[in-house]
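Would you mind writing out a protein's amino acid sequence and the numbers that encode its backbone to help me picture the idea?
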Amino acid sequence: MARKIMITCAVTGGGAGTRDKNPAVPVTPEEIAASALEAHAAGAAIVHIHVRDPETTGRSMELAHYAEVKERIEAAGADVIINLTTGPGATFVPGDDDPQIGGPGSNLTTPEIRTRHIEALRPEVCSLDVATMNFGANVFLNLPRHLSEMAATIKSSGVTPELECFDAGHIELAKYMIKQGDLEGPGLFQLCLGIPWGAPATVQTMAYMRDQLPDGALWSAFGISRFQMPMVAAAVLLGGQVRVGLEDNLYIEYGVLAPSNAALVEKAANIIRLMGEDIASPDDARAMIGLGK
């Protein structure tokens, strides 16, 4: 019997300059919502949402932008699961003159500010990055006590956290938080592979991280850039769910820019079907995650 695989589409992210590299990257709330709806129509059960500043095209934490995206998706009557990020607000770049003070590019802020849109909008799912690491040239900083505060707000808002882990030690921290009661087990995990300088996007790494998860955990995985589609196949093979989207990869094939998020979802869906599995609907995904219980 075919296994149903849920596809998450990470619609835009907040990476600087990605709109310049691929004009299909959505920026305004209207564009982000429209792209999310197209991805859902192509087979995505979940849409993972960042918002951007419509003027600069860079990352934003503006509550009004999150609210507009969510309202536009819901107004269209789509039953897709909305997953709002809590990642912004964790970037730290030490200043040149005083490394204790953040320099240009830092946006480190409080757990309260990073989760205020979750408390206000109460999506079904939100991300929680259980990770402190070198993230490219910057530091991605998520202190355990900050994660505990964010987890408490997420729980009190009735939202299910997706635990984003970029290396094996992050899984151990998530397991500790489950043991301490900060998070409910066995958990919904996203294995994030290929990000400099996290775990590499290889089948071996994915299998190892899968084996460190709590018994019974539901997990998904993705690779960035040229590893996006190979990691789709690997996740299906290893028993997981998948994520694709313009947040993680700008190309549909070597040297060819992806025309849309929907095109990436369609390619992932084709891989899943060619491997003999089926595509999960949003209601299938809700049952798998345990939403609405």
